[in-house]
Amino acid sequence: MFHRIFIANRGEIAVRIIRACRELEIETVAVYSTADAHALHVQLATQSVCIGPARAAESYLNLSALLTAALETGCDAVHPGYGFLSENPEFAELCEKCDLRFIGPSGAVIRQMGNKAAARALMRRHGVPVVPGSDGPVPDAQTAAAIAAEIGYPVLIKASAGGGGRGMRRAYAPEELPTLFAAAQAEAAACFGNGELYVEKLIVNPRHIEFQILADRQGHVIHLGERDCSVQRKNQKLIEESPSRALDAGLRARMGEAAVAAARAAGYQSAGTVEFVLDQDGSFYFIEMNTRIQVEHPVTEMVTGVDLLREQIRIAAGLPLGLTQEQVCQSGCAMECRINAEDPRAGFRPAPGRTEFLHLPGGPGVRVDTALFPGYELPPYYDSLAAKLIVHAPTRLECIRRMRRALEELIIQGYPTTADLAHLILYHPDFVKGRYDTGFLEQHLDELLAWDCKA
Ligand code: ADP
After folding, report:
1. Does 144 share its domain with 29?
2. Which of 283, 287, 292, 294 to mutate to test the pocket of ligand 1 (most atoms within 8 A of CB)?
3. 248: which of 111, 334, 353, 422 lies 20 to 30 Å off by Cα?
4. Do β-strands 4-7 and 77-79 pair in parallel, antiparallel, or remain unpaired?
């Protein structure tokens, strides 16, 4: 097992990694930018190193500063968390070259899955269902139009290097395709330094269902069930739950098998997630594989009782999986609300600030993953996730009730958050019935905000 793990990240995920390491009796080295000198992860780690100024490009994305710090502090492994360099194949390869075990899959696997057009092609070759669309990247709007004519409108233009819902455009008719293609290309080039695009059929209001995978270095691959992440704003997840109301045991088994087949096709090792869209007719399609731990991983931890960070670290150390597929059982229901420092009344504009007052909920079945503390100033340089509120209960209705009361206990003063909106969603009849899809929030946002009597 590792002696000292270097954490190339910040915020709540750095704290989550430190917690797993402490339970495994592994020392931790935290890194921080000058904006994060007083952050919680810095206070909790065994030791810490400043790696640069506030701008992520000069600190959390600075490969050489990170590698130098990891080597100088005598670490034997690197945990990248999510975001930042977690899906950067060069970083994974450089770590291994420096004799630092990268806690994740190999650079080659990250590279292949990071190009979504290439990942689609690989999955198709291995019999994993993919959304009908282009065979690979599409060079220009004309080719995209020809493919769209073949598969039928509406279509989704997507960036091969895309992530976080960016570089995507929906086209409903041939005449709007050229403009949307150019816009997607420009956004992809600006966000990812790669303007390559591909085309998929737009599945109208699907559910976003993803499967958690664990794969060890001995060739065992298992899935830990699904997370339904259909409550999204601007293609970004807001509430996640497991199990999904849209799956029965048969569909769960078939999707789980497809997820395991996808991970095997990729030659995957580590914790990862296979994402699908589920059509209203019960057809499901692979959309991408995330080669890292995800924000919403606690949902799976709560229903399966498996510590995913612990498993991920053990796998990287060469240990076999601690459980078999047959030993995985989903018990009860779990939900997560992402509490972002954003203003839902202003288009979810990030609104970080000083945490003037903080009260976190507790009691049975409640978990809060956060790096907040009273007086903490959320820096404006990074993502707007302030806290994750996760609850677990025997039934879905109890889970909803527990989440409502946990949100009622939660007090964050100093900036607007998505907590009130989450609370309103938990009262929406369609959500309560479990009848929602990725179009839910867009359809009901104005109605939900109008419910808020504080407005
Ligand atoms: P990103 O990596 O940017 O998050 P994804 O490919 O995971 O991109 O897609 C993000 C979201 O967009 C999905 O959760 C789903 O809601 C929606 N989406 C993706 N592909 C399709 C599709 N072919 N049809 C309908 N919705 C889609």
Report:
1. no
2. 287
3. 422
4. parallel
Parent domain of 58? 4-103
Q: How far apart are CA 295 and CA 277, in angstroms?
A: 19
Summarize pLDDT for 228-259 with one digit per residue, the tens.
999 999 889 999 999 999 999 999 999 999 99
One-letter amino acid of 119 = A
* Interval 426-443 mean pLDDT: 97
* Residue 213 clears pLDDT 80, i.e. is over it: yes
Q: Looking at the CA of residue 164, tell me the nearest atom of ligand 1.
A: 3
CA of 286 to the centre of ligand 1 (A): 10
What are the pLDDT digits (tens) for 58-97? 999 999 999 999 999 999 999 999 999 999 999 999 999 9
Q: Please list, residue by residue across 184-202, b when 16 or more beta carbons sit within 10 angstroms of its beta carbon and e when fewer do.
A: bbebbeebbebbbbbbbbb
Tally of domains in the chain: 3
455 band by pLDDT with thresholds 50, 70 and 90:
very low
Q: Would you mind telling me the total number of residues written for the chain in this entry?
A: 455
Please indicate, yes or no, whether the overall pTM of this predicted structure exceeds 0.85.
yes
185, 201, 217 - which closes a domain? 201
Place of tokens 């966000």: 191
CA distance 43 to 248: 45
Beta-strand pair 27-33/47-52: parallel
State yes or no: is 217 an active-site residue: no
